[in-house]
TrEMBL record:
InterPro entries, A to Z: AlkZ-like
PANTHER family noted in UniProt: CYTOPLASMIC PROTEIN (PTHR30528)
Keyword vocabulary terms for this entry: DNA-binding
Source taxon at top rank: Bacteria
Protein name per Swiss-Prot or TrEMBL: Winged helix DNA-binding domain-containing protein
Length: 390
């Protein structure tokens, strides 16, 4: 940001910044009127995306993240919304469900892949891609397993050439995921998936950059250029330009938090007038939108978080799948959880409390109430805390 156009600036304390982030993230969840299914769509539209993940020691990340914004959430909502073409799968910073309302803005990235300005992690076998596309055009929706061809196990997941072709066609926008069957993708032609009235005009770089800025700030309260362009290549200059324009328009304001500079939408800090629950504990998914940028998390919440399922067992400090816990407006603990299907028990293998947690008795009462709800969400009859530290 050039700074020449800054006409309004605000200083926030760290606790005020945390509150703004949590209110913008809809944490803890508040009851929404209307159908539960509609509340789920509202959450996806507000957040902009919800990350999909395959780990299932507890409910998968996309279900968990949405349950934390809508306590009436049911896992079948995702399939329903996909079938209704209200959401679709594509790439945010990772594989995600996105609102169909924002479909047009996925085209900027898709076109970049198609034109070779972005490189896919798979090589493009264009002859095979055309064969795969033609078969789906003629036969209708197909899964990777519907195509013959040997896998090369040395290359790991998705190494079958036709699977690679499917994913390349998906990333460049020729194919979409029309549904999932037992969590496996079903691919179909894009024109047969999107609603007929969908805007398919490709946004300019400036339009796309403005979309990234406004979407990020709506869902996160305040942000910096590096956060708005997280894992997106080649967009920093365009986003900086848009922020300068929006500061000049006075649709953005600058925010200072303990010497660190952010921007926010005009009127965003008015949210601080709203109350936020400081008695309810919330168990978060490691892939929750609020947590995914670890440097931001450390700066704003003083919470140093590493998902240890990717760490060798002997080097883990907290456990395989530790879930951060929000309470009293801060991240104060983490719980290594696992569903024991044989006993229908949610096992908390390790509940680790942060040094900053002072009111331990009040926290333990709150976390036990939350664990009761989380157990039910995971189709368990009860929960069991096995180990607490310190």
């Amino acid at each position: 940001m050039k700074g020449a156009h800054v006409v309004y600036s605000e200083k926030l304390s760290i606790s005020e910044a945390q509150k703004l982030v949590l209110l913008s993230q809809w944490l803890p969840a508040k009851y929404q009127k209307g159908k539960a299914h509609d509340a789920t769509l509202s959450a996806i539209e507000h957040l902009g995306y919800v990350q999909i993940d395959t780990i299932s020691v507890v409910q998968r990340a996309h279900h968990h993240t949405l349950w934390n914004r809508n306590r009436r959430y049911l896992p079948e909502h995702i399939d329903q919304l996909t079938q209704q073409r209200a959401i679709f799968e594509y790439w945010a910073h990772a594989a995600a469900y996105l609102p169909m309302r924002d479909y047009r803005f996925s085209l900027f990235r898709k076109q970049a892949f198609k034109e070779g300005r972005l490189r896919h992690w798979y090589n493009h076998d264009r002859a095979l891609m055309e064969q795969v596309l033609e078969r789906i055009r003629e036969e209708g929706p197909l899964m990777a397993k519907d195509f013959s061809g040997a896998s090369n196990n040395s290359k790991g997941w998705g190494s079958k050439p036709t699977k690679q072709a499917l994913e390349c066609l998906f990333m460049q926008g020729d194919l979409m995921v029309s549904e999932r069957r037992n969590f496996h993708k079903v691919y179909d032609l894009t024109e047969r998936v999107i609603p007929i009235d969908t805007d398919v005009s490709v946004p300019s770089e400036q339009e796309y950059a403005r979309f990234l800025v406004t979407q990020y700030l709506r869902a996160n309260g305040l942000g910096r250029v590096s956060e708005m362009t997280y894992l997106l290549k080649g967009l920093k200059t365009a986003v900086c330009g848009v922020i300068d324009d929006m500061l000049e328009e006075q649709t953005l304001v600058t925010i200072e938090v303990e010497g660190h500079h952010y921007v926010a939408c005009l009127g965003a800090i008015d949210q601080l007038k709203r109350p936020i629950s400081r008695t309810k504990a919330v168990i978060l998914s490691p892939f929750d939108n609020c947590l995914i940028q670890r440097q931001r998390l450390k700066m704003l919440f003083n919470f140093d978080y590493l998902l240890e399922c990717y760490v060798p067992k002997e080097k883990r400090q907290f456990g395989y799948f530790c879930l951060p816990i929000l309470w009293a407006g801060e991240l104060v603990a983490r719980a290594d959880c696992k569903v024991n299907k044989a006993t229908a028990t949610l096992e908390v293998l390790h509940l680790a409390l942060e040094p900053k947690l002072v009111e331990k008795a009040a926290f333990m009462e709150a976390i036990e109430q939350e664990l009761q709800q989380f157990a039910r969400f995971n189709a368990c009859d009860t929960f069991k805390i096995i180990r607490v530290t310190p």
